[in-house]
């Protein structure tokens, strides 16, 4: 049976990984500066991660959410401690799209309203309401387009005010650093005014931290660079270091009711073991400190290359923008220099999303290769 052909594929077949590197079937080593869409947070095959998942699967891999699962409680408590999000509650699911879907559903339950405000170049997933809130008509099927979504420009605070004052908006959903859209950010004043408008207009403020969370921005969450308190925070990618896991952090003002949300696989024993290994490693290895140190070093190196016209993002969620499309450049980095990088809807931008364990020597290797390709 052939695979449904929806992915354009590079001719590389990774079969193993260790920390910042992956290896193909011929033993060729690749420097991974993309982390599989920012998923690999603590490095490929980290010993803490391997041990935790192996130990758990040898005992109990799964049972439903109809029973007690102390691992979920342990994960929630650890997440509260490291993130600083005191008094939030955790609902676990399987992916970023699912996290945003549940966030939007919860906002609609809470407010009794159904329209969503999202932003140009935003990406929130490929499921029903999440994809409708995504600024890409090519992936929105007619069944998704039935959702009521208004997409505004970043920094258009007057537009946000006008839409929220109409009284039918249940949620504003926003990435504080856009991922697929190309690492764009709004101003601090914009984020903080949107937050205030949401409070005034009985609208839930959703921080999509699926890609920017778990230390990638230099703080545990990207919204923590600003003076805002989201009603709901969606998380996934780096949360499981490759194991499928997602979730939402829910402000205590939103009351839970039995049956309101649900999932079969979300918060299973293996997912929690993987998630705990990630949090423990971030803490023990001081990876957020490393993010800030390496980010500063990376930006200094990038500024010395005249072909780079703009540096976008924060922490280890960085975009390098050129005045030409970078598709061929990225191919040369992969095939000639064995370095993985990421693309974006902005075809002139390379995305850098490495494991948070990256060192300065790896940054040097990348820039040496980039200079040769340029």
From TrEMBL:
Matches recorded under InterPro entries: Aminotrans_3, Aminotrans_3_PPA_site, Class-III_PLP-dep_AT, PyrdxlP-dep_Trfase, PyrdxlP-dep_Trfase_major, PyrdxlP-dep_Trfase_small
Keywords assigned by UniProt, alphabetized: Aminotransferase, Pyridoxal phosphate, Transferase
Gene3D superfamilies with a match to the protein in the record: Aspartate Aminotransferase, domain 1 (3.90.1150.10), Type I PLP-dependent aspartate aminotransferase-like (Major domain) (3.40.640.10)
PROSITE patterns from the UniProt entry: AA_TRANSFER_CLASS_3
Cofactor: pyridoxal 5'-phosphate
Gene Ontology MF, one: transaminase activity
CDD domains in UniProt: OAT_like
Pfam family, one: Aminotran_3
Family of the protein in this entry: Belongs to the class-III pyridoxal-phosphate-dependent aminotransferase family.
Name the record gives this protein: Aminotransferase class III-fold pyridoxal phosphate-dependent enzyme
Source species of the chain: Flaviramulus multivorans
């Amino acid at each position: 049976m052939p695979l449904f052909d929806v992915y354009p594929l590079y001719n590389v077949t990774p079969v193993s990984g260790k920390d910042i590197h992956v290896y193909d079937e011929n033993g060729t080593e690749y420097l991974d500066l993309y982390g599989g869409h920012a998923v690999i947070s603590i490095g490929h095959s980290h010993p803490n991660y391997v041990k935790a998942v192996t130990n758990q699967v040898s005992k109990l891999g799964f049972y439903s959410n109809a029973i007690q699962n102390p691992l979920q409680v342990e994960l929630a408590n650890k997440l509260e401690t490291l993130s600083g999000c005191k008094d939030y509650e955790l609902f676990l699911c399987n992916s970023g799209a699912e996290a945003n879907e549940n966030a939007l559903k919860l906002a609609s339950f809470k407010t009794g309203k159904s329209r969503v405000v999202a932003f140009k170049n935003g990406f929130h997933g490929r499921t029903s309401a999440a994809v409708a809130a995504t600024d890409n008509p090519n992936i929105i099927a007619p069944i998704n387009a039935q959702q009521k979504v208004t997409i505004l420009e970043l920094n258009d605070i007057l537009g946000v005010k006008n839409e929220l004052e109409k009284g039918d908006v249940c949620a504003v959903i926003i990435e504080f650093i856009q991922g697929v859209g190309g690492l764009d950010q709004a101003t601090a004043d914009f984020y903080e005014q949107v937050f205030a408008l949401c409070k005034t207009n009985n609208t839930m403020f959703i921080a999509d931290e699926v890609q920017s969370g778990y230390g990638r921005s230099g703080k545990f969450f990207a919204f923590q660079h600003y003076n805002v308190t989201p009603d709901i925070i969606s998380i996934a990618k780096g949360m499981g270091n490759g194991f499928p896991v997602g979730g939402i952090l829910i402000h205590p003002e939103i009351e839970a009711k039995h049956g309101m949300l649900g999932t079969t696989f979300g918060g299973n024993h293996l997912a929690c073991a993987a998630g705990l290994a990630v949090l423990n490693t971030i803490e023990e290895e001081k990876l957020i400190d490393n993010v800030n140190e390496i980010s500063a070093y990376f930006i200094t190196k990038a500024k010395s290359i005249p072909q780079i016209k703009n540096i976008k993002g924060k922490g280890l969620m960085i975009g390098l923008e050129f005045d030409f499309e970078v598709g061929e450049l990225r191919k040369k980095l992969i095939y000639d220099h064995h370095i993985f990088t990421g693309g974006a809807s902005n075809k002139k931008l390379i995305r850098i999303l490495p494991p948070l364990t990256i060192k300065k020597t790896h940054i040097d290797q990348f820039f040496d290769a980039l200079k040769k390709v340029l």
